[in-house]
Design a protein that fits this description.
The structure holds 2 protein chains of 2 kinds.
Chain A (H helix, E strand, L loop, with lengths): L1 H31 L7 H6 L8 H5 L3 H8 L8 H5 L3 H8 L11 H9 L22 H4 L24 H8 L30
Chain B lengths: L4 H37 L14 E6 L8 H9 L11 E9 L4 E4 L22 E10 L7 H5 L5 E3 L5 E3 L9 H5 L6 E2 L6 E2 L5 H4 L6 H5 L5 E5 L6 H8 L2 E2 L11 E4 L7
Parallel strand pairs in B: 1-11
Antiparallel strand pairs in B: 1-9, 2-3, 2-4, 5-6, 7-8, 10-11
Classes of the chains: A mainly alpha, B alpha+beta.
Chain lengths: 201, 266
């Protein structure tokens, strides 16, 4: 019996010592054997910032940035379309030319604006296969009509096309955006007599 | 020389006690000296950053996401993530539900090119779609992270502000953490042969900026902020709106919250 008590005492003593040592060492041992990462968060924190805010772009592209940040594309960061600008900016600041590659406008615009059943209702979407004027020259680029840096809502169209026949490509009867019925008897007058392409309303 | 059992046990106990004592004293002396050298380094933005004063959280509004994938693309460029479609720190998934009860999830190339080229996934083409939406995914920075628990060399750890990071100098590339993450957030860097994952752009948030994916999102579907600041967007959303996390049953305590999350999303 006494041997059992002695054994129990030894176990209790060892456990007490063990627990004491553990509380003392637990918080420190991890650091001692090199398992903490004092320098590592710093290493991560020191990674370079590649995507730049619009303010950085405004250093050189002031007018464009200003127009965009006041437009319906205000929430679209420059880098979202143009790509991460750090290298471009670094080189430009040191006086070197570093053009940013930009994907074809039609690909870029459809990334967000091609109609998809999965997109939320209310987000402006078009079917790229039918949207726009039925004219190869016009359909080739969204930018023929829309300005990516100031799309507006509804978009204020740039009207680079002039002259009666060109207007009817879009605004003729049965076309994409037909002229109102009241215009039917104005065929001989020419659109530009009343409408100025630059101030189209 | 013969040695009695009693003497042998006694010697052993002394040796063990002495060893523990030395170990403890080292523990008390060494960390102080190392932390002093770290503080002395000081020339980066990290010196002015106090990790303990922040508790970062991420909120994703699935009803706003348009699936443009600019977030995933910005992330690749920001963090030099390989363009390999297997390597993604964040990606966008598309959920498509058909009238006959099928659920299809796809994410071509992680969504870095958007979904415009593939209006619908192959499996459900021609079928009637009852609902469909996009779900951006990124590291949940779990408070109770399985990846940290399983790492055999303690190469991955949680910072005081709650971000799970990987020490590339310690990682042995065993992939155990990649297996352990219930969300599939980790991958192996093909060249370095070390595990990698989203850090919520630790280099940006410690400089007071937003993560690259948040800045890149044109519709505000991704929100990021500090729960220690009651006025932050994320604090307000968590206080006022119905949010959920992915796989709550795993007990990982994620810090990426989802608004309007469909029950089918995993």
């Amino acid at each position: 019996m006494s041997i059992l008590i002695r054994a129990a005492l030894v176990v209790a003593l060892l456990s007490t010592v063990g627990l004491f040592m553990r509380t003392v060492t637990a918080s420190l041992s991890v650091e001692v054997i090199g398992l903490t990462h004092e320098d590592n968060p710093r290493w991560w924190a020191d990674r370079p910032v590649n995507n730049q805010p619009a303010a950085a772009c405004a250093e050189c592209h002031e007018a464009t940035t200003e127009a965009t940040t006041a437009s319906a594309h205000a929430t679209v960061n420059c880098d979202s379309c143009h790509g991460a600008a750090r290298e471009h900016i670094d080189l430009a600041r040191s006086g070197q030319d570093a053009p940013l590659a930009l994907a074809d406008a039609r690909d870029l615009c459809t990334t967000c604006h091609a109609a998809l059943v999965s997109r939320p209702d209310g987000f402006p979407q078009v079917d790229p296969t039918t949207h726009g004027a039925p004219d190869a020259a016009v359909t080739s680029s969204c930018e023929s009509c829309h300005n990516a840096h100031d799309p507006g809502f509804p978009p204020p169209f740039k009207h680079p096309l002039e002259g009666r026949s060109d207007c009817l490509v879009c605004h003729g009867p049965d076309q994409w955006q037909p002229a109102p019925p009241s215009h039917a008897d104005r065929a001989g007058d020419g659109c530009l007599k009343c409408h100025s392409p630059e101030e189209q309303t | 020389m013969p040695i009695s059992r009693r003497r042998f046990v006694k010697l052993g106990a002394h040796a063990a006690f002495g060893g523990l004592l030395v170990y403890t004293l080292r523990g008390i002396v060494l960390p102080q000296s190392t932390s002093r050298t770290v503080e002395a380094e000081g020339d980066s933005a990290y010196d002015r950053y106090r990790p303990g004063e922040h508790r970062w959280a991420f909120v994703i509004d699935t009803m706003k996401c348009i699936g443009c994938g600019r977030c995933a693309r910005a992330c690749k460029q920001e963090n030099n993530v390989p363009w390999d479609p297997q390597c993604n720190r964040t990606w966008v998934e598309r959920y498509s539900f058909t009238a006959d009860g099928e659920v299809c999830v796809d994410s071509p190339a992680g969504g870095i090119n958007g979904f415009a080229d593939e209006p619908l996934p192959e499996e459900v083409r021609g079928k009637e779609i009852t609902k469909s939406f996009f779900v951006p995914k990124l590291c949940n920075q779990c408070d109770n992270s399985p990846c940290v628990q399983v790492c055999p060399v303690a190469a991955t750890y949680k910072t005081a502000d709650g971000i799970v990071l990987i020490n590339r100098d310690k990682c042995i590339g065993c992939r155990y953490c990649i297996q352990a993450c219930p969300y599939g957030m980790r991958y192996l860097l093909p060249d370095e042969r070390v595990a990698d994952k989203c850090t919520w752009c630790y280099h940006r948030i410690t400089r007071g900026r937003l993560p690259a994916c948040v800045e890149a999102c044109p519709v505000g579907a991704r929100k990021f902020g500090d729960l220690r600041d009651p006025e932050s967007t994320v604090s307000k959303i968590l206080a006022e709106r119905n949010v959920s996390v992915l796989k709550p049953e795993m007990g990982t305590k994620p810090k990426t919250y989802y608004l309007e999350l469909d029950g089918e999303v995993v």
